Sequence to fold (318 residues):
Amino acid sequence: MNSHHKTELSEPVHYVGLDVSKARLDYVTETGTPASVPNTSVGHATLIARLREVPGARVVCEASGGYERALLAALWAAQLGACRVPPGRVRHYARAEGLWAKTDRIDAALLGRYARSMQPRLEQPVPTECLTLRELLDYRRQLSEQHTATRNRLEQAGPTLRKLLTAQLEHLAAGLAQAEAAIQAHLHAHPGLQAKAERLRQLQGVGPILATTLLAYLPELGQEDDKRIAALVGVAPYAHDSGETSRPRHARGGRIEVRNVLYMAAVSAAQHNPVLSAFYQRLRESGKPAKVCLTAVMRKMIVVLNRMLRDPHFSLVS
Fold:
C-alpha cells in the first residue's frame, strides 16, 4: 500500500454503500436502515444533506455505465468523498460471502461491507475540462465505429443499398470532421490541456488521438508513481507462481479506452521510434512472443509519458 493510500485511511471513515440505477439511488449507512432517492439533481441534493449528518461519510458505488457520473460530480462539489469500484470485484466478494441474491438494497449493503473490508482508494475529482473531452472522444469513437461498419457493408451491397450506404458514409464523415474540430477547439480553449497534449506528443509514436485519450481517461498521468500508472492502464505484469512452479506473467484489467489506443501507438512506435524499436527487437531476439514485446513497449511508453508530465526537464527517449 502506498503512502497516498495510507493518508486516505488515517482519518475515521464511515462507508455508505450505494447502488446506482438509471432512476434511483439505493443506499445504506453502517448503522442506518436502507433508503433511496431519485437519481436526479434533487435526489442528489437530498442525499448530500443526509450524508452531512454522518461523520466521515464516504460513498461507495460501482461503475454503472455513466449513470453515476452526475452523482460523483455533486459529491465532489459538496466536498464529500466517494469511491467508484469495479463491479466484477464486488461480485467476486459476494460469492466469497456465499451471497447469491441480488437486489438494489442487497447490493447497497454489499458495497458497504466490501468497502469496510477492502478499503478502496478514494476517487479523485476529475476536472470538468477532462470530462468534456471524454464526452467528445466517446462521441468520436461511436462515429468512427459506425463509419467502419458502414464501409464494410458497402463492400457487399447491391446497387440500391449502395446509394443509401454511400449517403450514410458521407454523413458520418462530416460528423467525424465536426467531432475532430470540437476536440481541437476544446483544447485551444484550455491552455493547460493544450500544453499537456503538446508535451505528450514530443514522444515519437504519440499522435493526437493518444494524447487526447490520455488527458481524458487518465487524468492521474503525471501525478502517480510509475507502477500505479501502469496498473491503471492494464500493462503491469502480475506474477502467477505456485511453489516451485513459475508461470508466465500476464497484464490484466485497466482502462480499456486507454489501452486500446496505446496498443496501436505501440505498434507504430515499435517500428518507427528508434529507442522503442531497438527495445522491441531486443525482446524479440531473446525469444519473447510478439504480443509480450508489444505489451512491454506499451508499459515503457506510459511510464515515460508519466515522467514527462511529472518532470518538465525529463529527457525524452527519442
